[in-house]
Design brief:
The chain is mainly alpha-helical. The protein is built from 19 helices and 2 strands. The longest helix has 30 residues. The chain is globular and about 65 Å long. The N terminus and C terminus are likely disordered. The chain binds zinc ion (2 copies). The site of one zinc ion (ZN) has 7 residues, from helix 5 and helix 7. It is a multi-pass membrane protein.
Length: about 375
Amino acid sequence: MATSSPVVAASAAKAATPAEAAAKLGATYPHEQMATRPLDLNPAHWYAAIKWHYDGGTLNWPMIIYIGLCHYWAVLGLTRLATVHTYTLLWAYVLWPITGLGITAGVHRLWSHRSYTAGPALRCLLMLMNSIANQGSIFHWARDHRVHHKHSETTADPHNAQRGFFYAHVGWLLCKKHPDVVKEGKKLDFNDLKRDGFVMFQRKLDPWFTMFMCFAFPGLVAKFGWGERFWDAVWVAGFLRYIFVLHSTWLVNSAAHIFGDHPYNEQWPAENPIVSFFAVGEGWHNWHHQYPYDYAASEFGITSQFNPTKLFIDFFCLLGMASNPKRATSSWERTKMKRDKGVFEKSNFVLCMEGYAARGADAAEAYPAKKQD
Ligand SMILES: [Zn+2]
Ligand SMILES: [Zn+2]
């Protein structure tokens, strides 16, 4: 099926022909060749996908039950929105950027990519903020993310977007890892993470510390802070806020890999302002995959591209608690100059032809046509 999807283009580029790429995907995941139908809303296809994993024994049942229950408790939170204290609503709201930054400024831009350096006080703060986000330990998140960057849109990518929107969004958590993900993950070096005491502290107590910080801690703050009913605060500021931030983060892997512009790499992923809003500045993903070491994870400043995470890192650099923020703008300028040089050479040819025309010379004389028989 002909399509202009960037993920299909990437697939086709790796295979000899687009047909071969589609056949390859079909042979591996007969139910999931959603590169040709990224947002598949056909329940028959969902059934086929679930059945394929069920028959193959590749469903991750503990995660299915855990994520299912968390969504159920988030719905309970929705039913309490009209009855909880205003402070509880505010508390749930501020936990969105707090936990979002624990992911974006913490495990993503600091621990996964080392795009800036943070002192111990900031690393401790980011570890705590990350724990309230409860997206697995920093160590495991950073490990999966480094594999994602190194092997994007291949079978070794933990959330390979060629397997469709749903798989890249959450499906990858609901079934067992592809063997290539495990194999490639073992080849990467994570000694920098092992040397970080805050990362190892959290990993040692995983998952109990992050569970406590994500669900019980917001409930305790609301109960002892302004007398909220503990469980109501747990449903609203715990589970409802948790599920909202989870989906915001997952949108980076699904929507920002499939929908949007491609100014820096014509194939994938994409620049997606809507994802940037929900994921506190993390939707400028075409730039980010091109320059993962850039602490801003976007080409422009915060006045042009919504990016609270950049603002957060800049603030802590000002305070002296962070340093060495790396930028890729000069690298991009060099790339553009090379590209523009190509354009200039073409223009030079045109100028040359125009010169001949201006002097009255016949361009055909300068560039004689091949002799016809
Ligand atoms: Zn990505
Ligand atoms: Zn990244």
